[in-house]
Amino acid sequence: MTTILPSAVPGPSPSDVADPMSTRGGVGDRIYGFLRRIPVAVLWIIVGIWTLPTLGLLINSLRPRDLQRSTGWWKVPGQLGDLTFENYTSVFEASSSAKLTDALLNSLAIAIPATIIPIAVAAFAAYAFAWIDFKGRKWMFIATVSLLAIPLQVALIPLLQLYVNGAHLTLPVLDKTITLIPDLNLAGTTTAVWLTHTGFALPFAIFLLHNYISGLPKDLFEAARIDGANHVTTFVRLVLPLSVPVLAAFAIFQFLWTYNDYLIANTMAGANPDATPMTIRIANLAGDFGANEHLLPAAGFAQAFVPVVVFFALQRYFVRGILAGSVKG
Amino acid sequence: MGKIISTLITIVVAVVGSAAVWVGANLVFNQVRRNWSTFRGLVGAIGGFALGALLAGNRVITGTQAGEDPFRLEAFLRWVWLPLLLAAVVGVWFGAVTKIPQDVPRLVISLVLAAAVAIGLGLFVADGYHPALKTVPLIAWTAGGVVLGGIVGTLRRHSPIPGALLGGALGALAGGWGSARIGDGPTVEAIAAFLIPALFVGARVGLPNIPALQQRLVIDRRSRAVIFLGPALLFIFATLVVPTLRTIYLSFLDDSSDSYVGFENYTETFQNPDTWDASQWTDVFTSRLFWIGLVGLALALFFGLKNKAMSGRAVEIGNSTTMPLVIGALFVAFALFSTLRGTISNNLWWVVTVTFLSTALGLAIAVLSDGRKLERTAKSLIFMPMAISLVGASVIWRFMYVARDTSQDQTGLMNALWTSLGKLSTGSGIPTYLIGILLAAFVVWLVVTLARQLTAGNGPAATLAGAAVLLFGWITLRYWGILGEGIGGFAVRDDGGVVAQTVDFPQHQPFNNMWLMVVLIWMQTGFAMVILSAAIKAVPTEYIEAAKMDGATTQQVFWRITVPQIAPTIGVVVTTLIVTVMKVFDIVKVMTNGQFGTQVLANDMYQQAFQFTNSGRGAALAVILFLSVLPVMILNIRRMQKEA
Question: CATH number of the domain at B374-403+511-644, please?
Fold first, then answer.
């Protein structure tokens, strides 16, 4: 807005004062222009460097095994006729250990519940912390948010033990052990993975949604109460529709987080080949450098395809989710 | 196909099941206002189901066998009848009894039903689970429960009787089953062990107890808080609170969690040379990085004294002291980290390098792209690695780093560039001289720039140009063979011939660590850039316009206005990155699995706990990781609470 002002005022504009060089003509002007352009060039050089690794993977995934093993991917201009989808078909159809179709389904079986359930659970809790009056509300909220400080590594060992053995409580004085949660055979299932993700997501999700939901105007809730709406109605009819932006931002963040996760999946389900998601398959494929190495680029790109599409399609929400997620521990 | 269907079923069951429980709970408590007896009946049914599941699960009454999947159909049918039957019976008992208006018949009927349930249960106790009751503890526990329940009731300003009855029931359960020797008692005692608590519950249900509307409204409201919070708290307790406490507990036990070993796991971790190895620290004096860093620090001292004399401040954001100070400190730190080996040193190295470079690069790109043509495209491309998994990124960079036998073409970009640079600088063709001349011209241009910035008195730009002159001047001198043989990936044979030589980036110690860090920097720069870019755009234009009016140069505007304005955001980026980097795992796991001196805390913890099955050491490492991110996280959380 302020940049429009100078043109209305006769005489030198502030920008001319700041850049005295730009008023000169001739050689000096051209040198100045050259210098001004350098940062743009630097920027695009950086962009190029940043894109090269991904581009290389994409090109390599389309090159047959022999070419991958004999020349670098940057020699592709002379090899355009040899490009093929062979690697992708063998990655998805082969009966070998590299088969990815099942792994993709496992990834979705982890990421979808691990996104929907924490959203629902956290939305309930955020609503309760924001708009239901009960004793100890404030300190309970602070305690919940403080749990953000716990790195997930800290909970892994006992959680795996829980999924393997169930939970048993030994009563202190009586010296009798009772089973609280039986051994549900969860170890090595996708269920164990998303249950874990759900728990770890909650403190952050509650914090994020609470920020938003507690900021909704108080009048709305009073009007709803006067109209006879109970908490469930208020929550379903009023809070959920109004919170769509924050729910979407969290959903995208959480979906990518769980879809891309390796540590939790490998701990809880890494031992069972039938339940492993894409990330583990690819890491294992990378681990045995050998016969299947030429499939690795195709597999890697297939795994990255979902998040990259989500990224380009929903970039605005994605950025918002990342911004919000920047506080997650 | 079958896999798709079973995946769908899993997802639907998980989502719908959770939703059903929540909606069901709300429907139950909807009955509080209008229909007290229905509410009571539903509560009874749920309680009966829970009791049945507990009994069947602990195999007190014929249920599943050990080691059997309780959700396989046959096994499921073998135990599920008991919780269902108990739910029906107890539900009807609670609901029907509440409907009876006269006091005495209600109490009598309730007691009779309670006795019936207890006798039924007692008759079906499985072999080997009959308790041999001990009278004294049974009576003591029951009396204790009655007294305690009564006191609690009185303290809550209610009648003491309901509380006493409930306390009696719990006390009798604990005293009867807990103190008894389980296994070979007579059936009568099994019946008695159920009958005594059941009668207390029966009496409690038989009391005149339809609370006033006011009281029911209170129950309604409080129940909503529990229903809305319950699932979240349940998950948080089960997956975060209890496991964290248990990890701390496990870290004081031995590898199989059998005996208490005190702080042994911690002392062993810290005394292990893989964790901390300072034996090679004198190598730092032969490290080139160290001496370059010292030169930087000396320069910083020189400029600092000069600035102090001129403006009274030795160090100020953007003055000529800053650049050599930062670069010098960074180089000295790199030199130290490369000589002090071990997990702790690696982790600190990661934190310093990735945090600093990602933030600095992110800030630089945010500034460079601000207001340019195609800004959004450029930023999208830089941000994109953020969407890729850490495993995927590691795979991508593995291909960048591939080193092949020098008799063949290099297929990894980095080694291809490195070996062709070596070929170029040691060769003698037209391309060699062309590149050499271009390099020399570039250095001349840099020297001219340095001179111009020096005469203009532009401190930071001059230091930057000076550093560039030193770096590229050295490269050019080596390239022309004036200083040493040349530059790039080559080796000189004994007969004087030159052959290509590759670098095995992930294995070449100790700087392989930095090649692994490149992967994370590649991913996190986009994150820093997006956040800082948003902050830069939020700096009020009035400030910048006003400064320009007063004759400030673009550089001054940046260092004196933009940077102080976005300082809090830089703090956010730095703290977030520190936490992320401290926990780095996937990259190390996939690229080297901690070999070749690249071990980090998170991978060490994973290996100890899940590969070497040493849960004590693993837990101790997890606790160390927790404690090391705790200060930064506390900072983060306090900042967040201020913002909220």
Answer: 1.10.3720.10
